[in-house]
Amino acid sequence: MLEINRNNYTVNVSEPILYVDNESRGRSGHMSHAMAEFAPGKLIDFNSNCTAKKYDGHSTYGWIEYRISEDGGETFSEIYELPYSKESLFDGIHVISVEKAVACDDGRIVAICLRNTATTLCAPWDTPMTVTSFDGGKTWTKEKELCPYKGRVYDAVYHDGVIYVLEFCNDGTSDFVGVKNEHVYRIFTSHNNGETFEELCVVPIPSMGRGYGSMLFDSDNRLHVYAYNIKDETHLDHIMSEDFGKTWCGPDTCYLKDGIRNPQTAIIDGVYVLHGRNAALTGFVLYTSEDGVNFDDGYNIASVKGLCYYSNNIVLEKNGKKRLLIQYSECYKSQCVNIFHRWLEIEK
User: Fold this and answer.
1) Tell me: the pLDDT tens digits for 31-90?
2) In the beta sheet, which residues pair with residue 264?
3) Three-state SS string across 141-208, please?
4) Is 255 a residue whose pLDDT tops 90?
5) What sign results for the dihedral spanned by CA atoms 267, 244, 155, 45?
6) Is residue 309 helix, strand or coil?
7) Calpha distance 210→163 (Å, rounded)
8) Which letter, b or e, does each residue of 97-122 get, where b requires 16 or more Cβ atoms within 10 Å of its Cβ?
9) SS3 at position 9
């Protein structure tokens, strides 16, 4: 157990738990770390099964797997394959990533599928799609288009019966960061559990040189959006809305001592948690904050060099205590990765 002491609380992080052993099967598995709790204690957890031979293992060329936990993430089922991802691979035009998924109040699971060009590392991207399961991941609907904009969905949350989806509308033809005026962050919402989506807004946050993104609601129903700046990796863009995305305050920036790439955020027991690959590409850094803007100096909770530490998280509950399940990739050879879990708890 790793214990990180802060002024008003202590962060406890478990030792790594191997979730997907790609090394033993000669595979890799970047980017697809979506998780969703579709019933109390019942969790669906995605990962990618990708080639270890293309781009030294740092690609999306493969298909999507998932497992089911019925005890809040302690143990998991056998591996299942997402049919849409296998069909796409066989068609040879796109390969699929599932970086985000949500579970709705009626128990349905909505998986958001990125369509990556099959012949490249991952980008360019086509328009995102969704597939839905009404039976806890046993079967899935036919895929349908989420919106008409090509790009990468960086986050999705379910809040008070509404799905919010954050997409950076940039097809990645030139770069994954913004290089044109039309490269902007948009939020889409669904008020019918993923049946249809509509554009809520263009997020008024700088987009030139930006990429990646994260989104969350705080305990006061304020919506926060964060964006990575490739030209200044120690300052994370931040903007906030107090009316569910209709108007916005800011933007401002959050100083991060070791920088961050592919930021992922959560709130647990009133503490903001931010994690991702550090700017030096030498570790997996974890920051915390009491206001979502002023973060501590961070702590490298893992230190393998390379293009790894894509990650995601989900807040779960055990015996009345909230805890954060963090999933992340870590290199075992070149850019080939295994997938790990860690549990994070806050003590005050």
Assistant:
1) 999 999 999 999 999 999 999 999 999 999 999 999 999 999 999 999 999 999 999 999
2) 275
3) CCCEECCCCCCEEEEEEEECCEEEEEEEECCCCCCCCECCCCCEEEEEEECCCCCCCEEEEECCCCCE
4) yes
5) positive
6) coil
7) 24
8) bbbbbbbbeeebbbbbbbbbbbeeeb
9) coil
Asked if 168 and 147 touch (Cβ cutoff 8 Å), the reply is no
Q: 247 CB contacts (<8 Å, ≥6 apart)?
A: 241
CA 97 to chain centre: 11
pTM: 0.98
Q: How far apart are CA 344 and CA 236, in angstroms?
A: 23
pLDDT(109) > 90 = yes
Nearest CA to 256 among 216, 281, 228, 282?
228
Residue labelled with tokens 């005890």? 71
Name the pLDDT band for 309 (thresholds 50, 70, 90). very high
SS3 305: coil
Question: What pLDDT is attached to residue 120?
Answer: 87
Joined together, the tokens standing for residue 331 give: 């290199």
- Asked if residue 100 lies in contact with residue 156, where contact means CB atoms within 8 angstroms, the answer is yes
Element spanning 23, H or E: helix 22-25
Q: Which two tokens stand for residue 178?
A: 């913004």
pLDDT at res. 54: 94
* Phi, psi (rounded to 5 degrees) for 144: -145, 155
- Positive or negative: CA dihedral 98, 102, 107, 108: negative
DSSP output for 208-277: BTEEEEEEEE-TT--EEEEEEETT-TTEEEEEEESSTTSS-EEEEEEE-TT--EEEEEEEETTEEEEEEE
Q: Which amino acid is at 67?
A: R
Residue 133: the pLDDT is 99
pLDDT of residue 188 exceeding 90, the answer is yes
The pLDDT mean for the chain works out to 97
Q: Which residue carries 């950076």 as its tokens?
A: 168
Tell me which DSSP letter residue 16 carries. P
